[in-house]
## 1
Amino acid sequence: MTTIGLILCRIGLHRWGRKRGYDEYSSNVIEWEQRCERCGKKKRWVEVKRDRRR
Ligand SMILES: [Zn+2]
């Protein structure tokens, strides 16, 4: 782990790794989670699925 990397994390410039999605069939949103490879911080957000009604 480099010092410069930690500084970047401190100011909010994380190095986000692969995002993982939790797609529950019954819900109409996908819950995404991404983790910083340097400090391990997680961020989560939800995305509304596309309307499948036809
Ligand atoms: Zn970070």
## 2
Amino acid sequence: MSDNAVVRVNGLNKKFNRDLKGSFTSGIRTLIGGAFKENPSKLKAGEFWALRNINLELRKGESLGLVGVNGSGKTTLLRLIAGVINPTSGTIETRGKIAPMLALGAGFEPSLSGSQNVYLNMSLLGMTTDEIRSSYDAVVDFAEIGESIDAPLGTYSTGMRMRLGFACAVHTDPQLLIVDEVLAVGDASFRVKCRNKINDIRKGGASLILVSHSRLSIEYLTDRAIYLQKGQVLAEGDSKSVLDAYEADQTRATREKLNSRDKPSTSATSIETGKKITIDHVRLLDNAGHEIEQIFPGEDLTVEVAVTAHEDLDECAFNVMFKPVVEPVVYHPSSTRDELGWVQITKGRHTVRMKFDPVIYLPGLYSIRVNISQGSMMDILCHVEEKSVRVLRPEGKIIRSHYIPPLHIDLAGLAVTAPDPEDVDFEGAEDL
Ligand SMILES: Nc1ncnc2c1ncn2[C@@H]1O[C@H](COP(=O)(O)OP(=O)(O)OP(=O)(O)O)[C@@H](O)[C@H]1O
Ligand SMILES: [Mg+2]
């Protein structure tokens, strides 16, 4: 390995068996090896390549992002580099202390106290008792566990366990951090704290390999990225261009999926509920009334919903959800009910326009789901998800996630009744 390399992966292949029995027997064969050793380059029935011909080198201080859809092999690659599992063929060399954050708190012992677990966990990560003692306060402080640190770990919530696991791992003075998705858990302020801590460790000269479905995390924390597809490297380069390539594929796949869906007027929901109402179309419009597929953050967006009501309907609401295609978050900022009360939809055709004024979202691709609900239990009468909008990234600007709900709703003459003050409030949009 060259002088400043921290990780070098050469011609790495990993196969798995889809069924449990096959996994078990091939695991035994790997263990006993020798005479029973099979040809590693051949697949047997039920086996598949989880990773195929992976080559990479990570130098001191570099940070690498891994992106790809579910099941593309990201976690497998991290587990191989962390030494949790062995490759089928190829080599992996690492140098220095590794802090793997794969399944945070997985090694914790529930009957021991939080504090005993800190000693246990950090010694497994290669720290001496003296080293643990000197960083103990910082760990407990970071994890925000407070007095519960002396309670048995079994009494901790999942969030507390993850916070403690993260705190232990980041206080081991690692040369390489291997992070799998952990930034997506915990509450919003802890996630920011984790991101900042990882950034501090990076600035201190450590290297980082990060798997995340969050564009923000990959862009903020990594210089270089690899796009994995079905276990193979599809693209590699600076993080922004790799993310663009990944998102372009996601956009194409989403559009194909949306296009192949049933037309809204025959949507299953409408039929099941006796066709009280159908959505004829959804269009995304700019201020000039032109259909659009992309906008810049801060621009206005009008969601036009044309419906045919087959009978008079009381207590209705038009709802729009923005679902980021890449990130596991749903924004559901709009219900006309919040603003206006219930909409009375009379039998016949109506075209309703909800103007988001302006839409301020993180850049990325959003699929737009529209539904019409009825009553305070929000029975969904019909729904459609056939459009998507790309929020573009303005050059040189940093966009934070937040929304402004629609201020202008054109109900095309439909009447409105006041909401019942007893009704439950809508949840706000989730922050990143
Ligand atoms: N121990 C195992 N035995 C058999 N198959 C496995 C094993 N571990 C992972 N796989 C399979 O290998 C493939 C890659 O899984 P992996 O967990 O690496 O994906 P991933 O990219 O991390 O996905 P995600 O985004 O959902 O976390 C998947 O098809 C998965 O089902
Ligand atoms: Mg994974």
